[in-house]
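Consider a concrete sample entry:
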Amino acid sequence: MKIFAQPLNSPIRFLTVALFAAVAMSGCSSQAGGSAAAGTPSASSGGESASASASPTPSSGPFGGFASAAEMCSTISQEATGASLLPMTAAQGKTAELEQYKTELSATADRVPDALKADFTNLKDTAIAGLKDQTVYSSGKFEKAMAPVTAWLSANCK
């Protein structure tokens, strides 16, 4: 595993970031009907979110390309948290899962409300860049990209 080839503080820092992201996102996603248990992007998150993610819609409405505030908050929270876990999926050699997560992250970036679009796209790009360059996590770039998304979720998903 590549994660063990890194200095000891690198995996610890990554896990700290992942834990922080999960805790930060849990408040929003728990209001959306208990979806917080998913924690990571899911290809089989049944019902409305699965059908909605299959066909992204414009993000200009009050809920972006989502049917409701609950779906918006839940999906954005799950995908942001999942972005922090992408390197773990890569380190485990789960190529198919990794590609699915990247696809879902991109689809969510297309569907978020306009007010969040630039910040969420930056988070997506930063997370994907972190797959090839783990300094994204150790240098604080990921935390910096996650901060405006977390702040938006806190302000809009109460």
Notes: The radius of gyration is 15 Å.
